[in-house]
Amino acid sequence: MIAPSLFELACRRRPVARTPVWFMRQAGRYLPEYRAVRRRRSLLQICKQPDLAAEVTLQPVDRLGVDAAIIFADLLLPAEPMGLRLEFVAGEGPLIRNPVRSRSDVEALATNHAADLGYVGEAIRLVRRRLDRRIPVIGFVGAPFTFASYIIEGGASRHFVRTKRMMYGEPALWNRLLGKLLKVLAPYAASQVRAGAAAIQVFDSWAGALSPGDYQRYVLPHSRDLIRRIGRAGVPVIHFSTGVGGYYAMLDQAGADVLSLDWRVELDKAWEAIGHRSAVQGNLDPAALFAPLPELRRQVVDILRRAGGRPGHIFNLGHGILPETPVENVKAVVEMVREFSTR
Amino acid sequence: MIAPSLFELACRRRPVARTPVWFMRQAGRYLPEYRAVRRRRSLLQICKQPDLAAEVTLQPVDRLGVDAAIIFADLLLPAEPMGLRLEFVAGEGPLIRNPVRSRSDVEALATNHAADLGYVGEAIRLVRRRLDRRIPVIGFVGAPFTFASYIIEGGASRHFVRTKRMMYGEPALWNRLLGKLLKVLAPYAASQVRAGAAAIQVFDSWAGALSPGDYQRYVLPHSRDLIRRIGRAGVPVIHFSTGVGGYYAMLDQAGADVLSLDWRVELDKAWEAIGHRSAVQGNLDPAALFAPLPELRRQVVDILRRAGGRPGHIFNLGHGILPETPVENVKAVVEMVREFSTR
Predict the structure, then answer these.
(1) CATH number for position A158
(2) Cα-Cα end-to-end distance for chain A
(3) Are B78 and B143 in contact (CB under 8 A)?
(4) Model confidence pLDDT, tens digit, residues B80-125
(5) Given CB 3.0 to 4.6 Å as the disulfide criterion, which of A50, A61, B206, B236 pairs with A123?
(6) Is the ipTM, as predicted for this complex, more than 0.90?
């Protein structure tokens, strides 16, 4: 029997000796060793080659001293076995060449090829072996709304008009689509847990495009279904979103163990707004990593002060590390969290 | 003595017979008559030719039956007399060819050529004359943060890294820059009031990029200064932003008469969060204008129900009308607001 990690204890709101810390996109373009790998391989090539994905996942671990690794993958990987043509175009992000616009597009989506994503599980196994249980590995999946909006819009979007048009205009088709996504995303998350993921983060990156009323009516039931099914696999679920500062309490109804807060809220007030029913993760502005150290320290300490030593805080950014971020500042934040949160 | 309009009464939280309604970007690309003008003229040409700006301002007035006109202009127009080279590039929005990055860039900004913006006042005078006092005209300016971020980044931005780097790393320079902007924006707003604007909307479109702490420390004092100076001109000030659902109460401290709410909050809860100290404007999702009429009506009625007939609600979107929006749905919203808010 191995003692649970700081990270897992915090997910379960158990007392810890100090606040665990990891960063979204801690493996990524800001790291020279990651850029070196990317010069030879595309993003999809790295994801699909478990030894490379494992290598990239582990790059930041020792360099930064974080308390969890997150598997290197992309939330749209499950689009491929569903029959969608996924590409990554420099500067534009993910593109779906055959987006889902009609009833027949929805019906054509395959939901029985999740095994094709076995390379992600394999990468998780490799990471776990190489970490030798020093720190846990986090797996992740896209949330139904964010996944749906990518495959409807055909890529990133600013106004989500096609997505909302389906949601408002064809609610039965919308529900059918999100139901099909659940059939892929839930087993995919479970496969990551079987491979050794100690937690699953559900990325609802675009939830902030929605009004609270639309979230509740069109999205919450699907997110709740997914989170419930992942929870049954026995690991804590982290629910990530941005731009929903006005309705975290509604997101909390989706039932995750941990709510990931962005920097547009004060951590103490947001935690209070959800009645401290879940753990919270966050919530430094990724741009604060460009600040001089005294200002950066002030912001880190402010977040820890707002968390107030209450069990159930995981230090993180409010969103992913930005490409030009100075590595030494990321490392400095880990040290600050260790220094100022030790109890 | 002319009786104040529904719009002006609502700005002052006085009782009205029905809820006034207007739309951000009610003159714009979704209107065929606007696109017809744009085929012959650039955006800047329209802004700088008062008869054209007036024509475009008035296009939606009779077609939609709105309760206020908003002058057709761009919030970056004051950049030109400050010595910045402003362009609009199709698909990219505004670009500043010589962005403000250093101390010498800040020092080089001129603050004494606001008179060069006289064409905006002239357009307001023309609009007022043609409206013959049927409805009021709203003027507008950019808020210091949003204006600064445009001229530092050189255009729209996703992560505002250069802006925040100056804010965090060179706070004295940041304050110097925002102080210089105040010297241009406040007289520019006052000139619009002299020309007949019945209210000024201050657009802090990018405020939602900031944490509440950064907003309070680096932005709030400057916004408060600007709003106080506009208020002295004797008209109500509307404070617009998006993405700040977690801290409207802090924005409210900037002292505007009306807080413009985006759709990421429930209007009743946000109004309560600011203790009903200001009027509120909003807050339909612009994408809801793509919904079938029954769904659109449900959302309009929900907003009116949340406003609850309390004096001080102006119906609007949470942000501007989107380019492909069906004109008939915009018109339908005006009719719904009239029907369901009449007291």
Answers:
(1) 3.20.20.210
(2) 25
(3) no
(4) 999 999 999 887 789 999 999 999 999 999 999 878 999 999 999 9
(5) A50
(6) yes
